[in-house]
Structures are given as structure tokens and as C-alpha cells.
């Protein structure tokens, strides 16, 4: 289970600098030490011109001291973490301190001794969208003010890039970007409709998670030229380990929407098809995302850039799928009888999810989908369906243990980038490596 890492201690930079400066001064010859005096006007040791034969020692001492001061200033600069993407990056249903991005943030603070400032642009429901800004700027800006728990397509992930540039002023200030996206462009409901075949899912996944993600990564790396980028993968929603009870079979039928003249499928066939398309989605999307990350990184390296584009696979097993015994996804908090009533009454009997934000999100949903005046029966049906989906939005999203797996996957990729003369340490002391979560 995820643990809050805010209490973990980090190496105090001040102590490092104090010991470093003391060592530099103690290592100098006594003749040079006699030539040093403190100038209160500029607050560091000033070298007074010594005899000519001692001049090289004095220059070395000055350079070392200047280097020490420069390192101290760099180490005190805040580390900027930007989070872009959909509900996975947002952390649907999780308290802030249990989200994968927060766990990575706390781990980075421990590892680097620096303050990590997180800017969250991700939100539930986000699509990648075109690189050009959304046409309806007013609607996009209005959507920006909504809570991230509320699922909506806008701002798109490309819009999030624009908003992040405005927020930072100077994009070069961003050190690390965690991003994901493409399942909402595909429409995740396709993965719950057994009328789709694995070939259908492969084709649309290639279209939605291939070129659009490649263009997005190129835009991100060319905009935030100092940032390392981690793009996270997805997971199999259903598997052979998913429960095969009456409720799950009823759900499969509820989402089954075949063509008018298509041959009907029995329960066994529905389950097998859903598992197959979920597997196809997982394998194809992650293969594409991984290959795209390598391709964009190779282009950067060819231009002499020091940026990395890394793919983080949370490595969910079949046992971690929805409704499995070792699931790492949010599910339902209801008795078997209530689950069945909810299915057969088409939502009139309400289900509750078992995530940490259900009450908070439920209040948001009621306000957002408030009944308007003069509502027609058709409009009421649409609104109530959307309200139900809003309340249950966290279902099949990573729970605390699932978020911890994402954090571990990201942290393992960042480990090689932290160290002596490394990206995060900025030429400092060696740092003990740890995973974002304790063993």
C-alpha cells in the first residue's frame, strides 16, 4: 500500500556546502590561507593578491570557492514537475497524497534535497486533440476551472501544453514532465463492448496512440527544452482473473451493443471477447507508446540534445485487472444484491465506487449536472445517465496500490538520471538511490 513520503528526510544541502567549503580551505597551504580575508560587502572569501609564486594556488582557491557557491545556489533552486494527460496522470479517485505524481514528487525531494513544485494540468477525460488551440477559447477556458475529477475532453492535452507555458512564463524552467494520453481519443467504452473485435481495437489504437502521441511528444520536447519526459502506459482492464460471477456477466450484457443483424453472443463468448480486446488494447497501446518514446528520444539525441523521453510501464499483471482478487483498480462498494438491482434497473438503483474521492466527486457531479428548468423526459434520461457515469468515474482506475506501481515504474526510470554530475543533482554529492515507495 502507498505510503506518504513527506516525512522522509533529505540530505541538507547547507551541511554539504559547509563541509565542502571547510575541506577546501583546510586543504590549502598555510601561506595561501594567510592571504584570505572576509569581505562583508560581498559575503564570500576574497583573495588578496599574494606574491607571484603563490598566485596559481590563489587562483585555484578562488575557483573552488566560486564553484562551491554556484553549486549551493543551483541546489537551492526549486525543481519543477509538470503533469499532463488524462485521468491516469490526474489520479482519478485518489487523494492528492496517494497520487502517483505526488509519490514521485516526494521521492524526488528526498533524493535531491530540493523543493519540488508540481504543476497539475492533467484532468479526467482529456483527449490529445490537435496541436492548434481549441477553436472555442471561451469554452476551453471555462473547462479549465473545473475540478480534475470531472471528466471532460477539454482542455485537450495539447491545450494543457499551452496553459503550462503561460503558467511558467519561461518553459525552460520545467525539469520533468509526466504525461499520458490516447485512451479517451479511442473512447474507453469500446473496450467494454464485446461487439468490437481485437482487430477493431488494434486498428483504432494504432490510429489514436501512434501519430498523435508522436506529434504530442515532439511538441512537448521542443517547447520545454530543459525537461526530461516520462510517458506512462496503460493496463489490461479485464483479464482471465477478473471475476466471472453473475454481476460481471450482467455488466457484459449491459455494455454489449452489436450491429442489428449480428449474431448474438452467449455469456462465455462475451467474456472471452472482452478479455481479448482488453489484452489487445494493452499490448498494442504500450508497444506504440514505447516505440514512439524511443523514436522521439533518438531524434533528440541525433541533434545533440540531453533530453530523454522515457516510457514507464506499470507492469500490471492479469491478477491486477478489474474485479480480480489482487486488483489494483477501483471497483464497486455494494452488496451483490445491490449490484444486480443496479444493472437490471438501468441505474435507478445507484451503485457506489470504493475510491477515496467518491463523496467529494458526487457533490461535484450533482452541481455540474443540476436539473435545469423545463427539462424534457429525454433530456432527463441523458442527464441522469451522465450523472451516474460521473459518480462512478473512478471505477477501473488505479487504486492506491495501482498508483504505487506507476510511481515505482517512473522512479526506476529516473534513478540513472540522479547522481554525481547527473541531471537532478547538478554536479553535487552522491545520492543514495531508493524507489519512490519503501519496500
Which descriptors would you attach to this protein?
two-stranded antiparallel ribbon, 46% helix, five-stranded parallel beta sheet, single chain, Rossmann fold, 16 helices
Provide a descriptive summary of the structure in words.
The chain starts with 12 loop residues before the first helix and ends in a 25-residue tail after the last helix. It is built from 16 helices and seven strands. A hairpin with a 4-residue loop joins strand 1 (36-39) and strand 2. It is of the alpha/beta class and 439 residues long. Mean pLDDT is 82; it is low at 1-54, 66-73 and 425-435. It has helices at 13-27, 30-33, 55-76, 87-90, 100-112, 137-144, 157-168, 183-186, 198-209, 211-223, 246-255, 267-302, 336-344, 358-368, 377-391, 400-414; strands at residues 36-39, 44-47, 79-84, 116-120, 176-179, 228-232, 309-312. The chain has two domains: 13-74, no CATH class; 78-329 and 399-417, Rossmann fold (3-Layer(aba) Sandwich).
Report a brief summary of the structure.
The protein is an alpha/beta fold and 439 residues long. Helix content is 46%, strand content 7%.
Topology readout:
Elements: H1 13-27, H2 30-33, E1 36-39, E2 44-47, H3 55-76, E3 79-84, H4 87-90, H5 100-112, E4 116-120, H6 137-144, H7 157-168, E5 176-179, H8 183-186, H9 198-209, H10 211-223, E6 228-232, H11 246-255, H12 267-302, E7 309-312, H13 336-344, H14 358-368, H15 377-391, H16 400-414
Parallel strand pairs: 3-4, 3-5, 5-6, 6-7
Antiparallel strand pairs: 1-2
Helix pairs in contact: 1-3, 5-16, 9-10, 9-12, 10-12, 11-13
